[in-house]
Design brief:
Helix content: 40-55%
Radius of gyration: 28 Å
Number of domains: 4
CATH superfamily of the largest domain: P-loop containing nucleotide triphosphate hydrolases
Strand content: 15-25%
Structural class: alpha/beta
Number of strands: 18
Number of helices: 20
CATH topology of the largest domain: Rossmann fold
Strand order of the largest sheet: 2-1-5-4-3
Largest sheet: 5 strands, antiparallel
CATH class of the largest domain: Alpha Beta
């Protein structure tokens, strides 16, 4: 049985604050995290009524109105969570999440436990993500991508394994890279193994390394990717393609944090954060015995799902802009833009190949466009077919040939208005400093300059670099 001192040490090592209350809702014990969150000494907390510690909050007001604690009224049923902001004696405001539980006790000493979680870091991450148009190589301002940005930044603050899921071409590797670049391991190595690219034995050697003579052709000893990624991050791409016997060894790495090279029996410690990505339905594979359930749950401690492009069509204009920037370098810096009708055609397509297919379609258009403007006829046949099926404007190409189609690429009015507002606010908050605004928005200065010019903000932004 654990001793009282051992229990106290355990409670003081928790990140959550704990208040123990008697039946009268007086505080009878408290841990170190709760003292820190409330900014008070033990003698200022113990034997006080719980509502008095949270004066001015909705929680305290509810207690006064109801003559009892709303949290306590529900401890026998579904957990009731309240978010509140507490002002500490030093004047600092701290956002907390609070819930309560009933303790299995027949005494009057401690009947309830109130749990407090500091939300400061969580809110800082949400604020950092809320007005980004880009996170690493990921681009988007729609609700789906903004939520993904928030999840990535939260996951980056942890050391837990992450399973990134999504259809092929959605950018799962970009998510993994953003996780690494925003984590405490950003200065360490980032390595990727495409698990479907290796036969079984070679995959083992690639991951775990091998001793000299371990198999035919192993003329020298070689470290594997786990060792090479020591102190950093390893992405296991297409994890659903890993054979079952290799899955067993991966499970050991996750559990023991050590590997054995092929042909050796000497364990080697590794310090690696493991990310995994797949387009496969792993739960279905688990049900059919094609993927180990224990490995699946070890990998998906923090699951992240990347939305398909058809689920975030509002991001297509931003993606087009970013992809064209990349393509210009491969086409001798050729300046090109999309007509409004071509952009409408892109928005009408379902993109089964997602962002990768969009990039290929734009490169196809660059090759087929005669001048500086991409028209619908320059797009791949399947994209033009989607536009016709969506009743795209008729005779667009004829109008363009006559010089009448002068409305070049602009994002749709809704997303464009929101993007313009974000850019304008960022510039104001940075005092017109474009370099700082670009940093806050997660984009390059060149991209920011183009967007400012596109929305007519370049003259209002000042001349700060």
């Amino acid at each position: 049985m654990i001793s009282l001192s051992g229990l106290t040490q355990f409670l003081d090592n928790l990140e959550e604050g704990i208040l123990f209350l008697d039946r009268r809702r007086q505080v009878v014990a408290i841990n170190k995290a709760a003292r820190r969150m409330l900014g008070r000494r033990d003698d200022e907390i113990l034997n006080r009524l719980c509502p008095g510690l949270f004066q001015g909050t909705a929680c305290a007001r509810n207690c006064e109105k109801q003559g009892g604690c709303a949290l306590m009224a529900t401890v026998r049923g579904e957990k009731l969570v309240q978010d509140l902001v507490v002002q500490r004696p030093d004047g600092e405001l701290i956002p907390l999440r609070m819930w309560a539980m009933q303790l299995p006790s027949d005494t009057d000493l401690a009947c309830y436990a109130v749990v407090l979680r500091d939300r400061s870091q969580e809110l800082r991450l949400e604020e950092a993500a809320s007005e980004r148009l880009q996170l690493g190589g990921l681009v988007g301002h729609g609700a789906a991508m903004q939520e993904l940005f928030r999840q990535i930044l939260r996951a980056a603050a942890s050391e837990a394994s992450v399973l990134v899921t999504g259809e092929s071409g959605t950018g799962k590797e970009l998510v993994a890279r953003a996780l690494h670049d925003n984590s405490s391991r950003a200065r360490g190595p980032y390595l990727r193994v495409h698990c479907a690219a290796f036969p079984e034995q070679l995959l083992e050697a690639e991951l775990f390394g091998h001793a000299r003579g371990a198999f035919t052709g192993a003329a020298t000893a070689r470290e594997g990717r786990f060792e090479a990624a020591h102190g950093g991050t390893l992405l296991l791409d297409e994890i659903g393609e890993v054979p079952l016997n290799v899955q067993v060894k991966l499970l050991r790495v996750l559990q023991e944090r050590e590997i054995e090279r092929l042909g050796e029996n000497q364990p080697r410690k590794v310090d690696v954060r493991i990310l995994a990505a797949t387009h496969r339905d792993l739960p279905a594979m688990v049900r059919h015995g094609a993927f180990r359930a224990d490995l699946y749950y070890r990998l998906r401690v923090l699951p992240l799902h990347v939305p398909a492009l058809r689920e975030r069509r509002e991001d297509i204009p931003l993606l087009v802009d970013a992809l064209l920037d990349n393509l210009r370098g491969r086409h001798q810096g050729r300046e090109i833009q999309l007509s409004a009708e071509a952009l409408d055609a892109l928005g009408a397509h379902d993109w089964p190949g997602n962002v990768r297919e969009l990039a290929n379609a734009l490169e196809y258009a660059l090759v087929h466009a005669e001048g500086a403007t991409v028209l619908p006829r320059h797009l791949p046949p399947e994209v033009r077919q989607s536009a016709r099926g969506a009743d795209a404007p008729a005779k667009v190409d004829d109008m363009a040939s006559a010089g009448l189609a002068q409305s070049y690429y602009r994002p749709p009015a809704g997303p464009a208005g929101r993007e313009r507002e974000i850019l304008s606010r960022a510039l104001k908050e940075c005092g017109g400093n474009r370099a700082e605004a670009a940093r806050r928005l997660g984009m390059s200065r060149t991209t920011l300059w183009k967007r400012l010019k596109q929305y007519g903000l370049d003259e209002d932004a000042g001349r700060s670099a």
